UniProtKB/TrEMBL annotation:
InterPro entries: PAP2/HPO, PAP2/HPO_sf. The chain crosses the membrane at residues 12-31, 37-57, 64-82, 94-112, 178-198, 210-227. It holds the Pfam family PAP2. This is Phosphatase PAP2 family protein. It comes from the Bacteria. Residues 95-223 form the Phosphatidic acid phosphatase type 2/haloperoxidase domain. The keyword Membrane applies. Gene3D superfamilies: Phosphatidic acid phosphatase type 2/haloperoxidase (1.20.144.10).
Length: 293
């Protein structure tokens, strides 16, 4: 019951924070321009974090988040195949990859960025671009695809680190929880600041992505009953599941390879037999023709 109350409180506070953010950014859209102006260096395309080093780290962060989600999905599928042999179960892994898919994949990149049409900071007139600035939460025609609202990278990082923190939380000491919380906050905030400083997103883009990821995380926490299953998310069960999955996968690969090899040999043998038969038939026809002559 204590976990349910804690979950309810977190959900309520997240909803309040989301509503407050929507009201503030909608009522005072100039906040986005003021914050982005702090990182604009005065010339079109010139931003504090616009260099190749920041782009490299952006790609590292993005690929790392995608890799974690992909690994979680593969273990999820593997655990479904293991059945009763699985140690961690499928729910904790579904929690990880579904959070990423739902937030970063479907909501942010699939719906918002593809339809709202908000131009990025480095594309608006105020910062040397050619598009008009659009306040958040408004439909616009200033961008056709991969638009500014909301931030895909922030959504990706937040939808990975938040579920991870939720899963390992029961196993952490007080100091461990403080460290994990600080690390998660630092990862999300650093990603947000990097995208704002590169002129690729406004403050509202990154803030709303954080809140979207948190809301989806708490929803899936309840939907998948993670509170009753996250206690198994420890090193030993995880390693046991990975080992079993790899063992089953290797046996499957060997079995499949043998089947493919056998079929290849059979096809080659059949082709050879047919070729010999055709050769014999043509030879017979040739001899018959010579006899007639």
């Amino acid at each position: 019951m204590e976990l349910d109350i804690a979950h309810m409180r977190i959900t309520i506070w997240l909803m309040i924070a989301t509503l407050f953010s929507v009201i503030v950014f909608a009522a005072f859209p100039f906040i986005d321009l003021k914050v982005s102006a702090l990182f604009f260096m005065g010339e079109a395309g010139s931003w504090v974090a616009g260099g190749p080093v920041f782009e490299f780290w952006r790609n590292v962060v993005r690929r790392s988040g995608e890799a974690i989600a992909a690994i979680a999905f593969l273990i999820f599928v593997g655990n479904l195949m293991l059945g009763q042999q699985q140690k961690t179960g499928w729910r904790v892994w579904a929690y990880l990859w579904l959070s990423t898919l739902s937030c970063a994949g479907v909501l942010v990149n699939g719906i918002l960025k593809s339809n709202l049409g908000r131009a990025r900071p480095n594309g608006v007139l105020e910062f040397g671009g050619q598009q008009l600035f659009t306040p958040p939460f408004q439909l616009s025609d200033q961008c056709s695809s991969n638009c500014s609202f909301s931030s895909g990278e922030v959504a990706l990082v937040a939808s990975v680190v938040l579920p991870l923190c939720v899963l390992i939380w029961p196993q952490l000491s007080r100091s461990g929880r403080i460290f994990a919380s600080g690390l998660a906050i630092a990862a999300v905030v650093a990603t947000a600041m990097m995208r704002i400083a590169a002129g690729r997103h406004f403050l509202s883009d990154t803030t709303m992505s954080m809140l979207f990821a948190a809301l989806i995380s708490v929803f899936l926490y309840r939907a998948l009953a993670i509170g009753s299953h996250r206690h198994v998310f420890t090193a030993a069960p995880i390693l046991a599941d990975v080992s079993n999955i790899l063992a089953h996968a290797s046996r499957y690969v060997v079995k499949t390879s043998r089947i493919v090899l056998d079929r290849t040999r059979w096809a080659a043998l059949r082709t050879r037999v047919l070729a010999l038969r055709d050769y014999a038939r043509f030879s017979s026809q040739g001899r018959s023709g010579a006899t007639v002559e």
